[in-house]
Known about the structure:
By secondary structure, the protein is mostly beta strands. It is built from two helices and seven strands, in the order ββαβαββββ.
Amino acid sequence: MEKSTSEKVVCYVVQREHLLVFTHLDVPLDVTGVQVPAGTVRPGEDPAAAAVREVLEETGMKADVVRPLGTAAYDYSPARFEIATRHFFLLRPATPADIARQWEAGESDPDHGGGQQRWECRWMPLAQAHVLSAGLGAMLGSLCG
């Protein structure tokens, strides 16, 4: 079977050495892991604009792009037969956020289909971000230095 291709963004929203992450509320952690805002670039959409949109859609937070971090290919197999070109971005909250805060967010119509999804957002110390799932931590090293 031929694998489909897609263009995605992965968003590292960082402030005070903390990374914005989320975990799903309705799906076990061992299925979804710890994630950062990410999603599909729409046809004709600039990846940086997609990053800002995805952070807002997935967390309710407005963020600004600081800089692009690079791209990487990711093979979703065996979960689905798709290879994504992922554009990684460093972002910061448009207004300072309380890093002690946790909040619920979600999507009623995710790009990959399926029903409503809910998750809990929180700030994780960057030093612990190695636990990100599904290759989402691929560019964390570019935040150092």
